[in-house]
Amino acid sequence: MKAIKVTRWVLGLVLSCVMWLFLWRWIYEDGNDIFDLSWLLIYSYLLLVSQIVIHEAGHALFGKMTGYKMTSFRVLSFMWSWYPDGRIVFKKSSVVGSSGQCSMVPPEYSENKWPLRWYLLGGCLANLIVSLLVLIFFESTWYLSIFSFMGFLIVLLNGVPDRQNDGKNILLASQREEYRYLLYLELKMNDLSNRGMSLAEMPRKYFEKIPTGSERTHLDDYHDLLRVYFFLDTKQWEKLQAELDMLWEQLPNVAPVYQLVVKAEMLFYLLIFQSNDPRIEEIWRDKKFRKIMKKKDSVTQRLKAAYLYYREKNLTEALYLLDSADDYLEELPTRGRKKREMQLIHWFRGLMVELGHPSHEVGRTQSESTM
User: Fold this and answer.
1) Longest Cα separation, the chain
2) Are 231 and 269 in contact (CB under 8 A)?
3) C-alpha separations of 31 from 144, 155, 299, 309, 334 in Å
4) Number of domains in the chain
5) Which family does it belong to (predicted)?
6) Strands (DSSP E) along 146-298, which ranges?
7) Containing structural domain, residue 59
C-alpha cells in the first residue's frame, strides 16, 4: 500500500507541475489577462464535466460488453434511471462526494467467475483512450490540452487505489472473494431498490454479516450501514443497537464519507430510546454534522424532528418538520429508498402522535416503540 501511495503522490506532483507550467505559458507567453483567465476556468469546468461523462460512459460500455445491464446513469446531480417496464426516467439527485456514477445490474454471482474488472476499469480506460487520441490525432490547442489533462487527472484520482475509488475496489476484489461478493451485493441491491423494493423486502441473506478480516474497508462500512437500515426498517431494535454500537466503537476506522451517516442514525436511535445519552449532544454539536444538517432533505428533516421532540419537547414543530420531509422524497436516487424513508417517516409520525406532547421524560423502551 505504501508503494501505491508513493506512486499516486508522484503522479499527482507531475500533473500539478504540468498544470502550473501550462498556466505560466498561457498567461506570460501568450499575453492573456484576468478576463481571459476567467473564461479559461469556465471552459476547464465544462471540459472536466465532459470527461466525467466519458468516464461513466466507459463503465456503461465495458459493463454492457461483460453482461451487465443499466440501472442508472448520473453526472453531477442529473440522473437517468432504467425501469423494468422499459422507461428511462430523468430526475435530479446528488450524492455527497460523488460527481458521477454508472450503476448497473450485475450478472448472477459465481465465485471466481463473476466479471468485475472490465466494468470497474471501463471508466478510467475510456478517459485514458480518449485523452490520448485527442493528443495524437488533433492539432494541439490550449483547450484540447486541458481536455486531455482533465482525463489524465480522473485516471489518477480513480485508477490509483485510494479510499473508495475504482482502483481500490479492484484491488480489494483481487485480494478476497468476500470483497467481490460485497461489490456484487452493492450493485444487486441498488438494482432492486431502483425497481422499488425496500430493504425489508429483499432476501434476508443479503444482510448476513460477512467476515472479511481484521482491517475495515469502505466495503465493510457500506454493508454494515445496510444492516443498520435493515434492522431499523424491520424494527429489530436490539440488533440495531448492537450494530450501531459496533460502528461507533470503530468510528475512527470507518471511511470518512460514512462516518456522518453512522452519527446520523446513531442520533436517531438514541433520541428515541436513550434520550439522555451524552452522545446526543456530542453528535448534535459536531461541526461537520452541523454542516450537513443545514441541507434540507428527508433525512435531515427527520433528524431535526426527532431532536425537537425528544430534546426540546416541541411536538407541534416536530410534526411540521416531519411533514415537510415528504417534500424531499422525490430527490432520493431510487424508488426503494423513497419507499423505506416514507415508511420510516410514517412510523415515526405515528410514534410521536401516540406519545403526545412530551413531558420531562419521553424516552421509550424498545418494546413500547414497536408499532
Assistant:
1) 74
2) no
3) 19, 31, 51, 62, 50
4) 1
5) Belongs to the peptidase M50B family.
6) none
7) 35-175
> Which helix or strand (DSSP H or E) is residue 123 part of?
helix 117-137
What's the whole-model pTM score?
A: 0.86
Amino acid identity of residue 80, one-letter, is W
Enter the C-alpha cell of residue 274: 436513550
Give the type of residue at 64.
K
Coil, helix or strand at residue 144: helix
Is 92 within the bounds of a domain? Answer: yes
Residue 162, domain member (yes or no) = yes
pLDDT in tens, 128-159: 999 999 999 888 777 888 899 899 989 988 99
Task: Quote the DSSP letter at residue 235.
Answer: T
Asked whether residue 258 is domain-assigned, the answer is: no
Cβ atoms of 98 and 158 closer than 8 Å? no
Residue with the three cell numbers 485516471? 155
Is the residue at 109 inside a domain?
A: yes
Query: In the prediction, which pLDDT does 360 show?
Result: 47
**DSSP helix/strand/coil, 26:** helix
Which of 134-143, 214-223, 246-255 has the weakest average pLDDT? 134-143
Q: pLDDT tens digits, residue range 11-23?
A: 666 767 766 676 6
Q: Which amino acid is at 323?
A: D
26 C-beta neighbours (distance < 10 Å), count? 17
Q: Give the chain's length.
A: 371
Element (DSSP H or E) covering residue 259: helix 256-273
Tell me the average pLDDT across 186-206: 95
